[in-house]
Structure formats: structure tokens, C-alpha cells
Write a structure and sequence with these properties.
By secondary structure, the protein is mainly α. It contains 1 helix and no strands. It is flat.
Length: 44
Amino acid sequence: MSIFRNVVLNLKTEEECERAINLYKEQLSSLTNSGVLDAYICRL
């Protein structure tokens, strides 16, 4: 069974965007061997 999670952030500045992306990258790296198969971070 696959579960898809989607998170949308609407940030005002490029600095806020970079900070949020870096925080998510840190969190994703800590999920190794916890069942997460793929993670994508996209900037629109």
C-alpha cells in the first residue's frame, strides 16, 4: 500500500524558501531505513 504525502508552502522571500528547504532536507536525511522510498523537493 502506497501513501502519498504532499506539502505546499507559500513563503514570501527567497531566504524563507531556502531555509524551509534546508530544514526539510535535514529531516528527510534522518528518515533513512524508516520506510520512506522517495522524497522530492520542488521549488515553483
